[in-house]
Amino acid sequence: MKRIISLGLFILATIGLNAQSYQIGDKAADFKLKNVDGKYVSLSDYKDAKGFIVIFTCNHCPFSVAYEDRIIKLDRKYKTKGFPVIAINPNDPELFESDSFENMIKRSNKKGFTFPYLIDETQDVYRKYGATKTPHVFILSTKNGKHTVEYIGAIDNNYKGADQATKHYIKDAVDALLQNKKPMVTTTKAIGCSIKSK
After folding, report:
1. Assign residue 142 a region: left if phi > 0, alpha if psi is -120 to 50, beta otherwise?
2. Domain limits of the chain?
3. Which of 44, 76, 107, 168 has the greatest count of CB atoms below 10 A from its CB?
4. What confidence score (pLDDT) does residue 20 get?
5. What confidence tens digit (pLDDT) does each residue in 71-84 have?
6. The domain 23-194 belongs to what CATH superfamily?
7. Type and span of the H or E element at 153
8. Which pTM does this prediction carry?
9. DSSP 35-100
């Protein structure tokens, strides 16, 4: 009997978690998180944005590290067109010290990040989005102050290198949105390290 009750509680908890995660077409709430420069950043700070490339990433994960240069290129290409990258570190630094705020600052400076690199100190934002990996991408379109989830998943289909990727999910999705079209592919499987939570 106890096993049945435990199983039921687990199923309810799982359903609850899924219900809180954003799906395609959902309206994403704004957030206010601390950037590596010490200032707080919100989506509402970007008055002229057409949307956002929100990427949950971190310092230590080899998948995240492998994508850093590609993320910088995506930001340089699309922020001038209205789709800036917003990077968020969701990991608990007590579980992975290399993901501490101080180490985020060092990593940002070393790599020359062109985008905000925010820390999700309460871990509320990644849970609300439903991110499970680093990196995990959520592309939002913005209209009248509302942020609609248009794509969820991976950056491309090969973490080993941009030259080895044959499908470029972020590029294709943002290019479509810039033409006032919906992305052909709206969800893919995020490949990376599991998020380290309390």
Report:
1. beta
2. 23-194
3. 107
4. 64
5. 999 999 999 999 99
6. Glutaredoxin (3.40.30.10)
7. strand 146-153
8. 0.89
9. ETTS-EE-GGG-TT-SEEEEEE--SS-HHHHHHHHHHHHHHHHHGGGT--EEEEE-S-TTT-GGGS
